[in-house]
UniProtKB/TrEMBL annotation:
HAMAP family for this protein: CbiM
Protein name as catalogued: Cobalt transport protein CbiM
Subcellular location: Cell membrane
Main location: membrane
Pathway entry: Cofactor biosynthesis; adenosylcobalamin biosynthesis
Subunit structure, interactors included: Forms an energy-coupling factor (ECF) transporter complex composed of an ATP-binding protein (A component, CbiO), a transmembrane protein (T component, CbiQ) and 2 possible substrate-capture proteins (S components, CbiM and CbiN) of unknown stoichimetry.
Family: Belongs to the CbiM family.
Gene: cbiM
Listed InterPro entries: CbiM, CbiM/NikMN
Organism whose genome encodes this protein: Floridaenema fluviatile BLCC-F154
Transmembrane spans: 28-49, 61-78, 98-119, 126-145, 157-182
Physiological role: Part of the energy-coupling factor (ECF) transporter complex CbiMNOQ involved in cobalt import.
């Protein structure tokens, strides 16, 4: 019943309070704008993937794992008490493993398959959804990971914060995108942003914490069973 309610909320033409933004919801000019913003990152990501697979062919399975992790987590639509749906993003792990540019490609592929197979998101809004989930989220994750590692060297903490904040910033950017497209009659963009961000916050904050903890568990599993690949990517040191 909760799943059906969530579907009806997302499928309604009057609601877009869930990432991903649904098909046809954004005005044409904003849909085009976000596509233009996203395409350079996608091209950069393709070049990064080609370089990584050429230099470290043994990491191809790890690359596939990062994409699968993102697909599974971001496909979990969880009903929100605010009348919307929330979900994890799963992009933090791949951003730490391979860098943020790679996730622009993996994230876009995830969004494409979800739009075509799960009716989650859309094709016209794929550019906007990709900017929030496949560009901004991974860049935040990578930046936070590097910052925490340089200041404290605590890798588990760095992984947790990277995954959690990537999740939160994805939804912040989605709120910005919706606010720009649909400013409030009173208060304009800022009022609209407060409304959309408030809708997400109740469920998204605990969900981001949960995603951070899950990502740490997956990271520990990789350290145990994929140590050579992580060493090849200079994420752990030989003998550590």
């Amino acid at each position: 019943m909760a799943t059906l309610s969530c579907y009806l909320v997302i499928g309604s033409p009057n609601a877009a309070s869930a990432m991903h933004i649904m098909e046809g919801f954004l005005p044409v000019q904003w849909a085009i704008f976000w596509w233009v913003v996203f395409i350079p990152f996608f091209i950069w990501g393709l070049r990064s993937i080609a370089q990584i697979t050429r230099l470290h062919p043994e990491t191809k399975l790890l690359l596939a794992l990062a994409g699968a992790f993102t697909f599974v987590l971001s496909a979990l639509k969880i009903p929100s008490v605010t009348g919307s749906c929330s979900h994890p993003t799963g992009t933090g792990l791949g951003a730490v493993l391979f860098g943020p540019s790679v996730m622009s490609v993996l994230g876009a592929l995830v969004l494409l398959f979800q739009a075509l197979l799960l009716a989650h998101g859309g094709l016209t809004t794929l550019g906007a959804n990709a900017v929030s989930m496949a560009v901004v989220g991974p860049f935040v994750a990578f930046g936070i990971y590097q910052l925490v590692m340089k200041t404290s060297g605590r890798q588990t903490l760095a992984i947790f914060l990277a995954a959690s904040l990537a999740n939160l910033f994805t939804y912040i950017i989605t709120s910005v995108q919706l606010a720009l497209a649909f400013p409030a009659e009173v208060g304009g963009v800022l009022a609209a942003f407060a409304k959309f961000a408030g809708i997400f916050a109740i469920t998204q904050i605990p969900l981001a914490i949960s995603e951070g903890l899950l990502t740490v568990l997956v990271w520990n599993w990789l350290v145990t069973y994929n140590r050579q690949e992580l060493q090849a990517l200079n994420l752990i040191k030989q003998g550590a």
